[in-house]
Write a structure and sequence with these properties.
CATH architecture: Alpha-Beta Barrel
Structural class: alpha/beta
Number of strands: 14
Number of helices: 12
CATH topology: TIM Barrel
CATH class: Alpha Beta
Largest sheet: 8 strands, parallel, barrel
Oligomer: single chain
Number of domains: 1
Order of helices and strands: EEHEHEHEHHEEEHEHEEHHHEHEHE
Radius of gyration: 20 Å
Strand order of the largest sheet: 2-3-4-5-8-9-10-13
Helix content: 40-55%
């Protein structure tokens, strides 16, 4: 056995709704806007009630219920300038970005925000975006090999001078970035496959998981941390969860039932065809969405699976149970973002902090095998 550090307190992030259609592919009412003014107010609210991070999504073309999209890095910078403490994570695709150029943008964003810019490296699942922009579509593990180089280049450029890197996808020759970031931006990376976990263990600061139950979280944590330990590193763990907090469990379950009942079936089935193929294309068949059901995909990152659905007390207890299993951060989606983040901050987060204060096991023992 070995002991792995677990955060004293769970951190919270929310999905920035900078893409139209909300966080569920359903015709249910979603009182959420994708425009800047809505998102500016939302970021300020989230910061005020206790969220530490926000993740700006990346879509380049209309697809599966997402008709309109604001670009992630520029939108992230706008939110950073509208807040004081919130860290904003911009999702980016290797293959559509050159890492040295993104490193330059990131350093500037870091200075403008006093060290609050972060990056989520997304290897990509939507072939149509790459081919529409004239970029080659790589097979699954090749996409992750490219991401591995991308992550390495970003960190080297942000921390070293006269950078040399000779990879299969990126070549950097005697490049020095000035000014360097005030704070080296945190690097996030997700995915379920062996290639994704390997990248996280070796190169990223955070591993993002799709929605998982307790067993799924434990299995991924063991694997990622085993790889990280072999590389002499530590990696933090973030879990996606769609939160439906209501005064009664019956109300919360009814909201879930209505979301699924009103699912936009053509959009969900189209998304399902694209992503299950992408997940199954990994050599071990463990890629994202490989085993997702129709209901899972109504929330397109399997957020229902985390089961953060019920009363504030039920959700707080489950969040703390995830923390004790090694989860450092909950990446939250909501149906009606503004009002539900307010509710979460008032009703759920104080209960989480109270339960955490009485948790007697600040560390988690995990098997090395």
């Amino acid at each position: 056995m070995t002991t792995e550090r677990v955060s004293d307190q769970t951190k919270f992030a929310y999905w920035v709704p900078n893409v139209s259609g909300g966080l569920v592919t359903s015709d249910i009412e979603q009182r959420t806007g994708w425009d800047y003014e809505y998102n500016k107010k939302l970021a300020q609210t989230a910061e005020r009630v206790g969220f530490e991070y926000a993740l700006s999504q990346v879509r380049y073309t209309a697809s599966y219920g997402a008709e309109f999209q604001h670009e992630s890095t520029s939108f992230s910078l706008a939110l950073l300038l509208a807040t004081e403490r919130l860290k904003v994570i911009a999702a980016v695709h290797p293959g559509l970005w050159q890492p040295g150029v993104l490193a330059k943008l990131g350093a500037t964003a870091d200075h403008l925000s006093n060290g609050r810019f972060a990056v989520n490296v997304v290897s990509g699942w939507f072939k149509g975006e790459f081919t529409a922009l004239g970029e080659p579509w790589l097979e699954h593990d090749e996409r992750y090999r490219r991401s591995a180089e991308f992550l390495q280049v970003l960190r080297k450029v942000w921390t070293e001078d006269n950078v040399e890197f000779a990879g299969d996808f990126y070549r950097i020759r005697d490049f020095t970035l000035k000014p360097k970031p005030l704070v080296v931006p945190e690097l996030f990376q997700g995915g379920n496959s062996t290639a994704a976990r390997d990248n996280a263990g070796k190169y990223s600061d955070w591993y993002f998981s799709n929605g998982k139950d307790f067993d799924g979280v434990t299995e991924q944590l063991l694997d990622v941390r085993r790889t990280a330990r072999a590389a002499g590193r530590e990696v933090k763990f973030g879990l996606n969860g769609f939160i439906i907090a209501r005064d009664t469990e019956k109300e919360a379950r009814e909201v879930l039932r209505e979301i699924v009942a009103k699912a936009n079936k053509p959009a969900v089935e189209g998304f399902r065809a694209a992503v299950t193929q992408a997940g199954a294309s990994s050599p071990d068949g463990k890629g994202m969405w490989a085993d997702s059901s129709f209901e899972d995909l109504v929330q397109y990152n399997d957020g229902f699976r985390s089961q953060l659905i019920g009363t504030p007390e039920q959700i707080a207890e489950r969040i703390v149970a995830y923390r004790r299993r090694g989860v450092d951060l909950i990446l939250a989606g909501f149906l009606h973002f503004q009002e539900e983040i307010e509710y979460f901050g008032a009703k759920v987060l104080p209960l989480v902090r109270e339960l955490e204060a009485h948790t007697t096991q600040p560390e988690l023992e995990l098997a090395t095998a």
